[in-house]
Design goal:
This protein is α+β, with helices and mostly antiparallel strands. The protein is built from 5 helices and 6 strands, in the order H-H-E-H-E-H-E-E-E-E-H. It has helices spanning 7-26, 29-35, 45-48, 57-64, 158-161, and strands at 36-44, 50-56, 75-90, 93-107, 115-132, 135-150. Strands 2-1-6-5-4-3 form a 6-stranded mixed sheet. Helix 1 packs antiparallel against helix 2 and helix 2 (29-35) packs antiparallel against helix 4. The chain starts with 6 loop residues before the first helix and ends in a 9-residue tail after the last helix. This is Scytalone dehydratase. Keywords: Lyase. Residues 4-157 form the Scytalone dehydratase-like domain.
C-alpha cells in the first residue's frame, strides 16, 4: 500500500475537517451529524478527562450540542485550523493532524454585550476519517493541548459537564 493520498481523498478529508470546525462554531448540529461515521473514536482526555473508543454518532451529537457544552447560546467559538498533514492508514482510513486554535467566549446575557470569560486553546488536533460505502466520513478526534490562555475553566462548568457524558467504553 502506498502512503500517498490521492488528491480527491485529500480534498474530501480536508473538507470534513472544515465542516467539523464550522459546524461547531455555527452550532449547526444537524449538519454535523451528516458528516459523521456511524461510530466515532473521541479522545477528550486532555480537555475533559474523557474518551470513547466507539461512541455512536447520535450520542456524540447529543453530547456536543448539549447546552452545557457547545449548545450553550452564551458561548461562542471559533475553531481555526492551521497547517495540516495527513497519513493514509489503509484504503479506508486516514488520520489528519492539524494545528488548531479554539477561541471561546462566554457572555453574561443573551444580548452578548458583556463578556463573562474568554478561554482559548492551542493544540494539535488529530482527526480520524473512514471511508464508508465509498464516501469519507469524520470518524473522531483527539486534541493534544499545548497551552490555554485566559480563563478556560470559566467557559465550562466541570460539575455540569459530568451530567452530559455518555458512558465511556475506554
Amino acid at each position: 500500500m502506498s502512503n500517498e493520498i490521492p488528491f480527491e481523498d485529500w480534498r474530501d478529508v480536508s473538507q470534513l475537517s472544515f465542516e467539523w470546525a464550522d459546524c461547531y462554531d455555527e452550532k449547526n448540529f444537524e449538519r454535523l451529524a451528516r458528516i459523521l461515521a456511524p461510530t466515532l473514536k473521541i479522545d477528550y482526555t486532555m480537555v475533559f478527562g474523557k474518551s470513547w473508543r466507539s461512541l455512536p454518532a447520535a450520542d456524540f451529537v447529543k453530547m456536543i450540542s448539549n447546552p452545557k457544552l457547545l449548545g450553550n447560546p452564551l458561548v461562542q467559538t471559533q475553531h481555526f485550523l492551521g497547517a495540516s498533514k495527513y497519513e493514509k492508514i489503509s484504503e479506508t482510513e486516514i488520520h489528519g493532524t492539524h494545528q488548531i486554535r479554539a477561541a471561546h467566549q462566554k457572555y453574561i446575557e443573551p444580548d452578548k454585550k458583556s463578556v463573562y470569560a474568554k478561554g482559548h486553546g492551542h493544540a494539535i488536533m488529530v482527526h480520524f476519517y473512514k471511508k464508508i460505502d465509498g464516501q469519507w466520513k469524520f470518524a473522531g478526534l483527539r486534541p493534544t493541548v499545548r497551552w490555554n490562555e485566559f480563563e478556560m475553566d470559566k467557559i465550562w462548568n466541570k460539575f455540569d459537564m459530568e451530567q452530559i457524558w455518555p458512558p465511556t467504553d475506554a
